[in-house]
Amino acid sequence: MPMDALLLDNQLCYALYAAANRMTKSYRPMLERMGLTYPQYLVLLVLWETDAVTVSEIGRRLRLDSGTLTPVLKRLEGAGFVTRSRRRSDEREVEIKLTPHGRGLRAEAVTVRKAVMCQLHLSEPEVQALRADLNALIENLSAAD
């Protein structure tokens, strides 16, 4: 029997969509205890890696536009996790910096990742391989832009 290309279970896009929703749902209760949404958590991941970066750099790393990022950054600033300021070297650029409170969340975030990893029932090498496959997919789809 030939595979029906339009069956829902045969759709890669649906599998990715459902997996992304489940992954976000796995993070939600732990992030709520930290006072974060999932998009805010992603921004903090970028800042924990490299503090004091521009909005455009965060957008590049997360593949998000500034219109999507601005409300997330404003909420992070309102919660006291980051500061936003114009760069002295170029007033057109807005620089985002962690506050001590924002830096302090990093230790708690480590436990969040461990908890989610336990839910996955995948080894670290399996997670790395899956991430590599997904990154290749992202690059292939980005090349079409």
What does this structure look like?
This protein has 145 residues and is mostly helical. It has a single domain (8-143), classed as Orthogonal Bundle (Arc Repressor Mutant, subunit A). It is built from six helices and three strands. Helix 1 packs across helix 5. The longest helix has 23 residues, at 12-34. The chain is globular, with a radius of gyration of 18 Å. The N and C termini lie far apart (36 Å). The mean pLDDT is 94.
What topology does this entry show?
Layout: H1 12-34, H2 38-49, E1 53-54, H3 55-62, H4 66-78, E2 82-86, E3 94-98, H5 100-120, H6 124-143
Antiparallel strand pairs: 1-3, 2-3
Helix pairs in contact: 1-5
Summarize the structure.
With 145 residues, the protein is mostly helical. Helix content is 67%, strand content 8%.
| Strand content bin | 5-15%
DSSP, total strands: 3
Figure out the total of helices: 6
What is the average per-residue confidence, as pLDDT, rounded to a whole number?
94
Structure classification: mainly alpha
Helix proportion of residues, in percent? 55-70%
CATH architecture descriptor name:
Orthogonal Bundle
Number of domains as seen in the coordinates = 1
- What is the H/E order? HHEHHEEHH
Tell me about the largest β-sheet.
Answer: 3 strands, antiparallel
**What is the H level of CATH, i.e. the homologous superfamily?**
Winged helix-like DNA-binding domain superfamily/Winged helix DNA-binding domain
CATH class: Mainly Alpha
CATH fold label: Arc Repressor Mutant, subunit A
Radius of gyration: 18 Å
Q: How are the strands of the biggest sheet laid out side by side?
A: 1-3-2
Shape call? globular
Report, as a whole number of angstroms, the end-to-end distance. 36 Å
Based on the structure, what is the oligomeric state of the protein chains? single chain
Any low-confidence stretches, pLDDT <50, length ≥5?
none
